[in-house]
Design a protein that fits this description.
Strand order of the largest sheet: 2-3-1-9-8-10
Number of strands: 17
Radius of gyration: 23 Å
Largest sheet: 6 strands, antiparallel
Oligomer: single chain
Distance between the termini: 25 Å
Number of helices: 21
Shape: globular
Amino acid sequence: MCGIAGFLGPFDLPRLKAMTDAIAHRGPDDAGTEVIKATESGQNAGLGHRRLSIIDLAGGHQPMWSYDRSVAIVFNGEIYNYRSLRSEIEAGGGRFQTNSDTEVIVEGWRIWGERILPRLGGMFAFALWDTRTREWILARDRHGIKPLYYAVPSSGTLVFASEIRPLLPFLGQTGIELKALYEFLLYGWSAGPQSIFQRVQQLLPGHVLRVRADRASAPGTPVAFARRNPSQPIRSHAAWVTAVRDGLDRAVASHLVADVPIGVNLSGGLDSSAVVASMIRQIDPGRIDSFTVGFGRDDDETPHAALMAKHAGIRHHTRNVPQESIARDFKRIIGIIEEPIAHPVLQTTYEAARLAREKVKVVLIGEGADELFLGYPQYRVLTSPFRYLPAARKRDMYLAICCVMPTKRAIERMLSPRFLDRDLLDSVAGRFDPYFTASGFDRGAQEFELDFPLVANQLMRIDKLTMAHGLEARVPFLDNELVDLALSIPVASRVDHGRSKIVLRDAMEGRLPQASFTARRQAREEPKLSCPISKVSCTKVHYRTWCHARPLAAEAG
């Protein structure tokens, strides 16, 4: 887990080092920079890296070159199936100099080219410089666990990084991207590919962008290299239960690959408790540290977490955060996430990461389970009697619950004339309508949740707030095979009008204390882990903060 940055253009090593310094928090263990002559006309390729050492502590320095120095990489993430891929690549002529997962990508690209991309199991955002074609290859994992931003300062140039801040000095004065602002005000997040800053783009999940140094035009269009594939055969409910239990165990096992200790963020609810239940079947419970934060409220989840930790026999760490720290840290948290999201657990994520980093470098988390196993309240729209409503009515209900959306008219009243473009606002308000057609509403609603709220609202928050403390967060529920399995399960085996995550709950029977099934599960618009910040207050703070992009741009410069 690391931070990456780089460029193509008439830039030099000091500019590259400034980019990596801006993301030093992502990789406090090591740093590497290299500038390569890309063309005879003065174009350089810069590869910058900040490392948080997790796998092959001694041999994983980056930038990393293939053995023949034809391909170089800067890489953020973890490839969990790198050992099996390495064997295949070696059989095809690959040669390895380290034991790191990074080198599997380098040699895989050298031997297979783009065919390596859909084979990668894990979370990643990386940039490859291929000297044979003099081009950058930027890629992001299919679920969007790791972020990757890029910009074109001028014709024939490119800058990219794990976060936005390193890019802003190349752009000079920037402004608000209205489309992103409207998405935030309507949905509570901005979906991409645009960011809140004009001219800064985010690479979409499961996409690759290729940029040739000898082409003086802007980068081409990113191309999808992988999609979800829910193609499991029809099974009985009992068979689905067994498949989910076994699939989660395999996913957790793969996510335990590391050369450093691994902990777990534990709320005491079903999702994180299920991860713990799988962990203790593969690691001595006495070696596992779990972490929970609370805010001293009546609805605090710390008692549920402590009960699960005792049941599992793991070492549990709790911190009660004084409420006065919210005002102290909230402005810093806004700066860390860079883009506005109206999420009520920003403080909780930040504090949990700070606590965990005192003991470990890696934690497993339970995110993704609600999206896969239909745990959120909006999924009740997929059940009777709501499923018989017209698609447009169901769509409105679904989005209203999912995003706590204001009306378009309310947004128009909120904006000053210089920020109001009614045609663009109409377009943004209808952007996701194709997901909610009458013939494919159930599948479309699930795809929408995975494509947008999960990426823009959940995973972005988790990445930036954990990496702010130099902590890697792994998401076993988003294992590629487990995702495909879950999406193959009929809706009726996952949610009905009175029960959510049915198949996952049944899979965990006998593994968890009863309290893990009955602990109150707050909806996304409520404060998980009892962080006393409402979505409305988050939205107001964000709106005031992000109506002015210049202060952050100036600070970044």
